[in-house]
Design a protein that fits this description.
This protein is mainly alpha-helical. It contains 17 helices and four strands. Strand 3 and strand 4 form a beta hairpin. Helix 3 packs across helix 11.
Length: 468
């Protein structure tokens, strides 16, 4: 019976991976963007849009995701993981399929369906598989979060190839160059542009089918699951801990509470905060702003890596392969950084991530000189690095503030994306022409260093004084 229960837990993890595989197709936008913008410029009244404006779609996606995630956490507690996940994931798939119509009419409608509606669906469905998986494997939160959100990072590996094979099977190169912006290239071939609307129907239908299978695999563990000898030791340590203050200087004091056996973690702070208590702590806002600044790199790289590559690489299939393998590295990075947090601490892992990402961004401008191979390596490394945000921050939320309200609490933390998206899009539109690619890379590196400093100041500890 115990063996069956454990295997049931792994099936729930697999269901979460499948769900996140489809939600993570948010990262196919960098691959789809040249096709979409080329189609919009040629077939709608928005003929003057450029790649800078393409960031609006991705910005509205992560804005919608950040806006909806707190509601996803609340729905998970009331409706359970299956119904909440199905509701959100099918809303996302409907947004993709409706884009078949919106892309033919106006860019504004496309921003609504492929941007905002897509993001709201992702936000509602995102948390439930994570919470479900952590309940089955409470002692390995970092690794399990890495597995599930690894699916989120890996979705583009499959669907970048599907999109390019369907839209551009003959590997045609962009043949339209703007007179005043020779570094920007667009597709003008009708055989490519004609397939853009139907591609949304194809991939949206595939997403919906995979999501249904994933939802059927999700299940919560039985109430008596997870009582282990190790958790008993941690429980006694937590109950004996002294009062911990997480709002230094503000006089707000919280005491460790008894945590259910199924939710114990040897790296836990011993706290179990409600959302109302959470937002009163300095630690929460430290994480919120660290996520905000680190998220600027995610927005910029995910949206414009292919547009940058097209300025010196003429092989569209190669760029699709770069996008596909970068998705694998995104998935692998989530596993790696989550495991690193389990081995050492959230703080050590996050400091390493921020410094690595800053160095990669500062040296990204050298890739035209290094050729295709260097571009491939650097894009994969960037995705490998920023992917860790999405296993480290939910792990930090669960360990620092407890697992009783982790869905809602992580949803509140993720609201930073409501700011990340619009700010990132505004900065790109405003500054790209003025400071160029190198200036933008330097700006993103500076944001990552700010996140480094915020992480350094993070003040939640375990009862024994070590980092969580």
């Amino acid at each position: 019976m115990e063996c069956f229960t454990r295997w049931r837990g792994w099936l729930a993890v697999l269901g979460g991976v499948l769900i996140h595989l489809t939600l993570g197709t948010i990262y196919t936008y960098g691959n789809m963007s040249p096709y979409i913008m080329s189609y919009v410029r040629t077939n709608t009244d928005s003929g003057d849009v450029r790649y800078q404006q393409s960031t609006l779609i991705f910005a509205l996606t992560i804005f919608g995701q950040g806006l909806a995630m707190p509601f996803g956490g609340l729905l998970e507690k009331r409706l359970g993981p299956r119904l909440t996940t199905l509701l959100g994931s099918w809303l996302m798939s409907c947004g993709v399929m409706l884009s078949c119509l919106s892309v033919q009419n106006s860019y504004a409608l496309l921003v609504l369906t492929y941007g905002f509606m897509f993001g709201v669906g992702v936000g509602i469905a995102y948390i439930s598989p994570l919470v479900c998986a952590m309940k089955w494997m409470p002692e390995r939160k970092g690794l399990i979060n890495g597995f599930v959100v690894g699916g989120f990072g890996g979705g583009a590996f499959i669907f970048d190839q599907v999109q390019t094979a369907y839209i551009n099977p003959h590997n045609l190169t962009p043949n339209v160059t703007l007179p005043n912006h020779p570094g920007e290239k667009y597709f003008g071939q009708e055989e490519i542009l004609a397939k853009v609307p139907s591609c949304f129907l194809l991939i949206g239908g595939i997403y919906a089918l995979i999501q249904l299978i994933g939802v059927l695999l999700l299940a919560e563990p039985p109430e008596d699951f997870g009582i282990t000898e190790a958790s008993e030791l941690v429980k006694s340590s937590v109950q004996a801990a002294d009062t911990v203050s997480t709002d230094s200087g503000a006089g707000y004091v919280m005491e460790p509470q008894t945590i259910p056996d199924s939710e114990l973690d040897c790296k836990s702070s011993g706290l179990n905060l409600s959302p109302r208590e959470l937002v009163k702590t300095r630690a929460f806002w430290t994480l919120w702003f660290a996520f905000l600044f680190q998220g600027q790199g995610q927005l910029f790289v995910s949206t414009l890596y292919k547009a940058f590559g097209q300025s010196f690489i003429k092989d569209d299939s190669f760029l699709a392969i770069v996008g596909a393998f970068s998705a694998l590295f995104n998935a692998g990075g989530r596993l790696f950084w989550g495991a690193l947090a389990d081995m050492f601490s959230f703080r050590a892992a996050m400091l390493t991530l921020c410094s690595t990402f800053a160095v990669l961004m500062l040296t990204f401008m050298a890739t035209p000189d290094g050729g295709n191979a260097m571009f491939f390596i650097w894009v994969c490394a960037l995705f490998f690095t920023f992917g860790g945000n999405f296993s480290l921050f939910p792990t930090a939320t669960a360990r620092a503030f407890g697992t009783e309200h982790v869905g809602t609490n992580y949803g509140l933390l993720f609201t930073n994306q409501c700011v990340t998206g619009p700010v990132g899009a505004f900065l790109t539109i405003l500054l790209k022409d003025a400071i160029g690619w190198f200036g933008m890379f330097g700006l993103i590196a500076a944001f990552s260093l700010i996140s480094f400093l915020l992480t350094w100041s993070f003040n939640i500890k375990r009862p024994n004084g070590l980092d969580i």
